[in-house]
């Protein structure tokens, strides 16, 4: 069911229920109060008659009743066990035949006689002869019933008219509310069909929910576009990275085919270059695989370990193959962290390898602790990273200086892998660097209190 129909139906049904409840209450309250005020009036008259009967015993009962005769009705006295009233005065002859009944106690009510409604009040009293009788006042209340009936029709008609008006206006209001949503959906459909990252026009002055939704959509589009462009860039960089060594290998093979047999010096150079290019390709594909696999299993294979020990042993293992000395400063003592050991070591190797490659001086690894966190910083005194490049070093295949990096054999994937590993451990990695002075990569991980 459409939202507009739902709004329309819901508001109409709620109003029907409310109107029915209110109008039925009005109808019954009016009916009851009108009838009871009529009965009260009759009961007051009866009391007056009784008082006068006591005060003026010499006036005959009939003439007394005559004096109090109602505008449209009858007054009668009924004796127990007698079928017909003993005395009765009336305004209309037809009222004589209203069947009479004797009530033991005071009675007030409404009776129907020949399609007319009558209010009746019957009060027990003592007659002139000392008998117990019923003094009964009966009044025609057809006019009152007509009024009640009229009120009923007025209420029914207003209910119907209000419901029709409400049904139409709620449909209109529903359409008014949903129009911007409809417009938004149309734009989104168009964007989907075109496959583009277009934005929705947003009215700056309006702060309503629809506008907020459009703004969220636009933000999402910007993010999607950025990630799509990054992905595209990555694929193109990766294929370019693979194409370069393949082209080099291909040209050397062509050269070998032509001159290889006659020129042994060229043979040597070609074999060396082909070997180095194929090594680079192998390293690149391995790094690509690593990047793709970083998330696999990390969550389930984490263990609580003292990372100070792991940092120490990794440094020891790497030191012999490094051209620079690694100093390890551990101010924190034991630091227990829940990590995936293999990935954590991989992260350290990436940072230390960079510090070794891009620096000509010693490297310092420092471990510090703060409340709930442990930080490991890998600091070098090397070339540093220019300010404008710092935001991109964690991007896949980003290298500050392509020619320099090509010499050092990098792929630009190391820091991207490092960032993913850190994220898998709910940690953070930040870079502090001054070009020409050195770089400092700081990894912060949540600590376990043991
Ligand atoms: N300690 C550092 N000092 C100076 N520049 C650095 C340092 N670490 C990284 N960089 C720069 O950031 C770039 C990206 O580093 P990353 O580790 O991701 O790739 P790489 O070292 O080039 O290749 P890989 O690590 O995949 O072998 C590097 O090419 C280098 O330009
Ligand atoms: Mg690296």
Description:
- It is built from ten helices and twelve strands.
- The protein has 450 residues and is of the alpha+beta class.
- The protein has three domains: 3-148, PAS domain (Beta-Lactamase, 2-Layer Sandwich); 210-292, Orthogonal Bundle (Helix Hairpins); 297-446, 2-Layer Sandwich (Heat Shock Protein 90).
- The strands form three sheets. The protein has a five-stranded antiparallel beta sheet, covered by helices on one side.
- Strand 4 (116-126) and strand 5 (132-140) form a beta hairpin.
- The longest helix is centred in the first third of the chain and has 53 residues, at 3-55.
- The model has no long low-confidence stretch (mean pLDDT 89).
- Bound molecules: adenosine-5'-triphosphate and magnesium ion (MG).
- Adenosine-5'-triphosphate is lined by residues 287, 350, 354-355, 358, 380, 382-385, 393, 398-401, 405, 410-416, 439.
């Amino acid at each position: 069911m459409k939202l507009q129909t739902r709004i329309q139906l819901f508001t109409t049904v709620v109003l029907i229920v409310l109107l029915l409840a209110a109008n039925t209450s009005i109808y019954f309250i009016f009916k009851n109060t009108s009838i009871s005020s009529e009965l009260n009036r009759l009961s007051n008259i009866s009391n007056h008659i009784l008082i006068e009967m006591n005060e003026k015993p010499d006036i005959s009962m009939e003439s007394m009743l005559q004096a109090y005769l109602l505008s449209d009705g009858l007054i009668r006295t009924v004796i127990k066990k007698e079928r017909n009233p003993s005395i009765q005065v009336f305004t209309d002859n037809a009222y004589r035949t209203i069947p009479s009944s004797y009530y033991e106690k005071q009675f007030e009510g409404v009776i129907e006689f020949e399609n007319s409604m009558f209010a009746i009040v019957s009060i027990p009293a003592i007659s002139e002869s000392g008998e117990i009788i019923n003094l009964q006042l009966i009044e025609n209340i057809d006019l009152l019933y007509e009024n009640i009936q009229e009120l009923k029709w007025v209420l029914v008609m207003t209910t119907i008219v209000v419901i029709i008006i409400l049904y139409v206006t709620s449909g209109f209001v529903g359409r008014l509310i949903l129009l911007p949503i409809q417009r938004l959906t149309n734009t989104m459909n168009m964007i989907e069909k075109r496959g583009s990252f277009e934005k929705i026009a947003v009215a700056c002055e309006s702060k309503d929910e629809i506008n907020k939704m459009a703004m969220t959509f636009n933000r999402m589009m910007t993010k999607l576009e950025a990630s799509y462009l990054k992905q595209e860039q990555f694929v193109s960089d990766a294929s370019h990275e693979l194409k370069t060594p393949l082209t080099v290998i291909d040209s050397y093979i062509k050269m070998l085919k032509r001159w290889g047999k006659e020129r042994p010096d060229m043979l040597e150079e070609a074999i060396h270059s082909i070997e180095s290019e194929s090594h680079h390709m192998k390293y690149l594909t391995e790094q690509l695989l690593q990047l793709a696999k970083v998330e696999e299993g990390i969550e389930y294979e984490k263990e609580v370990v003292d990372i100070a020990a792991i940092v120490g042993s990794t440094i020891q293992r790497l030191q012999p193959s490094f051209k620079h000395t690694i100093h390890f400063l551990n101010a924190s003592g034991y630091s227990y962290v829940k990590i995936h050991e293999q990935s954590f070591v991989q992260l350290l190797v990436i940072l230390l390898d960079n510090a070794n490659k891009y620096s000509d001086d010693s490297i310092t690894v420092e471990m510090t602790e703060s409340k709930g966190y442990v930080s490991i910083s890998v600091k070098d005194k090397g070339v540093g990273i220019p300010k404008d490049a710092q935001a991109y070093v964690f991007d896949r295949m980003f290298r500050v200086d392509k020619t320099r990096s090509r010499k050092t054999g990098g792929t630009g994937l190391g820091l991207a892998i490092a960032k993913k590993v850190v994220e898998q451990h709910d940690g953070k990695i930040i870079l502090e660097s001054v070009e020409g002075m050195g770089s400092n990569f700081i990894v912060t991980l949540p600590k376990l209190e043991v």
